[in-house]
Design a protein that fits this description.
The complex is a heterodimer. Chain A is of the alpha+beta class. Chain A has 3 domains: 87 residues, no CATH class; 114 residues, Jelly Rolls; 98 residues, Jelly Rolls (Sandwich), CATH 2.60.120. Chain A is built from 5 helices and 18 strands. In chain A, helix 4 runs antiparallel to helix 5. The radius of gyration of chain A is 23 Å and the shape is globular. The N terminus of chain A is likely disordered. By secondary structure, chain B is α+β, with helices and mostly antiparallel strands. In chain B, strand 10 and strand 11 form a beta hairpin. The termini of chain B are far apart. The N terminus of chain B is likely disordered. Classes of the chains: A alpha+beta, B alpha+beta.
Chain lengths: 352, 374
């Protein structure tokens, strides 16, 4: 306490000045572009789903104040998961250094710098998980006419599979990248999705020897959320997206069960299982969504905390290592504030 | 809305107002440096920092939400997301070609390459000159447009000078205010009740508002509550004076480039670097805490931004930590960087409540860093 007072008086002995005009040491080409290319460029590029590209200086600098606000509010990149809880694959958040570089550049004059450094993220040619077992393309395009700004469209695909199978992974390739905001993939007749896709999200497969059950003759439904930005508003846009389905080779695969847990409630496991991934479904803006695991011995572990998740970017969080849960374990979901909203977290559980 | 436009138009005659109902807008062409965008002049010339030729920029008044910056409206009202009252901001307006963004201008028109109509884009203006002109404490109002400086020129005398966004003095007769010396917060009604306040009255020449607040020992804590538009709420600004203000204007060109708080900072190196850096962060935290407690919130930016530069340096040592400690440190370092920038921002606004909220995050981040490097 004493030291505070001394420091306070020392600090106050100088004239009270607010900010001086400031100059950043960071430039777009040397410091900011490499971050934008790696962390923002999958959406914020020419033809991408974002309403502005950040991959050239002239495109990026007019948005300085917005970029600063989005980054400081942890709204962009849309990762939302608190680093302290759960270890997830494909982490998309910024580091402290990256955040600081961007904000400093935005506030300190946004200079361009001399020579560009680093390369654009290369466009992926083909499917990242390799050749799929089934490639299901829309046979006719979905058209958003001039007057339609936003739509959710559903397309049903026949798999042509004669016998039951297990789906180990699903990837999605949007046709019109500038309007496809998210995609949800369901096995016809099942309530919970087997996969979701948002721009920039990398595909992930279930552990070898496991999969979502695909009954014989079952269709696959693709639900796509389309939304135009001011760049495409007022024009007709056609989309012809493609699904890639990867099947589990083993005939005796472990089945993945997707369980929905509403905030304020819990799911109790009736047999041993592995928790592979979490898919939060948040319809409205909330302060935080939390998932906690209570083992049969009473020990409690927080496995996910989302800070102000954006309902527009429903992301699946894949654990780096699946969590082994003995029978009797409980998974609780909480939300703040708790009044009036009830987000759901879908658990992907693998069991014998 | 009309009152707001009228007041601003009277105060800044160079602003052109067009009265077209819904699209009513107030805008002004200024000269700004293409690199140092905080440099804003009313005439053509060179940047005072880098001597580049200034370029013409269109700025416009608009209304935005304090927490949803994406909401920008052409008139006052409530935020459609959270229903908060919108506040006045200045935006920079550009017209750019959707296909060739390098083709952009401060005027609407067509692209020189493909002839497509240019599309309007806007961004809010960066920091302006916040140097005090009369040796006092300088704050920006929440509308990001008005600025004010409080001084304590002699024992018992409190003065408030008002400026626009370009640090041009405004006529104090157009504003109302009071100096609050004592108040209590009623937890039941969630209202602050003033127990002792004096009116801030305009000087005959309109140079400042003034209140006689009685003699007392230093440090003197005084709160100015100022109304910028008729009918709007009184905004609060918390001042603390430790000595008589010397009325000396900052000499032009005497611009301290702090590198946003980082230039003079020596980052420790060597095998003990992480612990030394963590200690240096804790020391900056004490300075920030003291400034928050003392009310000198427009000075927080220096230790706060130094702490975040130290945090960035500490991040480069993270791989040396045991794996189970890294996520906690990663979170704490990000939280520290975020909250330091927010403290800088809210300190500029002179808003003690927001400073306190941001400081809670800052303090929590430092505590976690200390738990990793005890």
């Amino acid at each position: 306490m004493k030291s505070w007072l001394t420091i306070a008086l020392l600090a106050l002995a100088t004239t009270a000045w607010a900010h001086k005009p400031t100059v950043t040491k960071f430039t777009y080409n040397a410091d900011v572009f490499p971050i934008f290319a790696a962390k923002c460029g999958s959406c914020h590029r020419s033809g991408g789903v974002a309403p502005m590209s950040l991959l050239t200086y002239k495109e990026a600098y007019p948005w300085g104040v917005s970029i600063k606000n989005e980054v400081l509010n942890l709204a962009m990149p849309p990762w939302f998961a608190d680093e302290r809880y759960g270890t997830f694959k494909h982490r998309a958040g910024l580091s402290a250094k990256e955040m600081n570089t961007i904000v400093d550049w935005c506030l300190g004059g946004s200079p361009e710098g001399d020579t560009p450094k680093g390369d654009r993220a290369p466009d992926v040619d083909g499917w990242m998980l390799g050749e799929p077992d089934l490639e299901l393309a829309m046979t006719s395009p979905v058209v958003l006419d001039e007057g339609t700004s936003e739509a959710i469209e559903e397309v049903t695909f026949e798999t042509g599979l004669a016998s039951a199978a297990y789906i180990r992974a699903i990837d999605f390739r949007p046709g019109a990248e500038n309007i496809v905001r998210s995609a949800t993939i369901l096995v016809d007749g099942q309530e919970q999705p087997v996969a979701t896709w948002i721009p920039g999200q990398l595909p992930e497969a279930l552990p070898a020897g496991s999969g979502h059950a695909l009954p014989a003759g079952a269709d696959i439904k693709l639900r796509v959320h389309y939304k135009k930005t001011w760049l495409s508003e007022g024009t007709a846009v056609e989309d012809q997206s493609v699904l890639a389905i990867y099947l589990e080779e083993s005939d005796s695969a472990k089945s993945v069960e997707t369980v929905a847990v509403t905030a304020g409630s819990a799911h109790i496991l009736e047999r041993d299982a592995e928790l592979v991934a979490l898919l939060p479904r948040v319809e409205t803006r909330v302060e935080s969504v939390i998932a906690e695991l209570v083992r049969p011995d009473g020990s409690r572990e927080r496995i996910l905390r989302l800070y102000q998740p954006d309902p527009n970017w429903p992301r699946k969080y894949w654990f780096e290592e699946p969590i082994a849960l003995p029978s009797g374990s409980r998974i609780e979901v909480k939300v703040t504030p708790s009044e009036g909203v009830s987000p759901v977290i879908l658990l992907d559980l693998v069991s014998e | 809305m009309k009152v707001a436009i009228l007041v601003v138009a009277l105060l800044t005659p160079a602003f052109a107002t067009s009265q077209q109902g819904e699209t009513e807008k107030t805008q002004k062409l200024v000269w700004t440096c293409p690199v140092h965008r905080e440099v804003t002049e009313t005439e053509r010339g060179q940047c005072e920092l880098c001597e580049r030729q200034l370029v013409q920029t269109l700025v416009r008044l608009a209304w935005s939400c304090p927490i949803h910056p994406v909401v920008v409206e052409s008139e006052s009202g409530q935020c459609p997301i959270c229903q908060r009252d919108l506040f006045l901001i200045t935006e920079e307006v550009r017209y750019a070609c959707p296909m060739h963004p390098e083709e952009n201008s401060h005027e609407p028109g067509n692209c020189a390459i493909c002839n497509m109509a240019l599309v309007e884009s806007t961004s809010t203006r960066p920091h302006q000159n916040h140097n005090p002109k009369h040796g006092g404490m300088f704050f920006m109002a929440p509308d990001n447009w008005h600025h004010l400086e409080g001084t304590y020129p002699e024992d018992g005398l409190f003065r408030v000078f008002l400026y626009n966004n370009f640090s041009e003095p405004l006529n104090a007769k157009d504003f109302k205010g009071r100096a609050v010396l004592k108040e209590v917060f009623d937890a039941d009604t969630k209202q602050t009740r003033e127990l002792l306040a004096y009116p801030l009255l305009a000087s005959p020449d309109g140079a400042y508002l003034e209140a006689h607040v009685g003699s007392a020992a230093f440090p003197r804590e005084l709160t100015a509550k100022v109304q910028f538009e008729r009918g709007s709420a009184f905004e609060r600004f918390d001042f603390i004076f430790v000595e008589i203000s010397e009325d000396v204007e900052t000499a032009p060109g005497n611009i301290e480039t702090t590198g946003l708080g980082g230039d003079e900072l020596v980052i420790p190196d060597g095998p003990d670097a992480p612990s030394v850096i963590a200690m240096a962060i804790a020391e900056r935290n004490l300075r920030v805490r003291a400034l928050v407690a003392s009310g000198a919130i427009n000075e927080i930016y220096l230790p706060a931004l130094q702490a975040k530069d130290l945090a960035v340096a500490l991040e480069s040592h993270m791989d040396a930590l045991p794996a189970d400690q890294r996520p906690k440190l990663q979170w704490a370092l990000k939280q520290l960087v975020r909250s330091a920038w927010l403290l800088d921002d809210y300190g500029d606004l002179g808003n003690r409540e927001k400073v306190h909220a941001a400081y809670d995050w800052f303090d929590e981040a430092v505590e976690q860093i200390q738990s990793v490097y005890p």
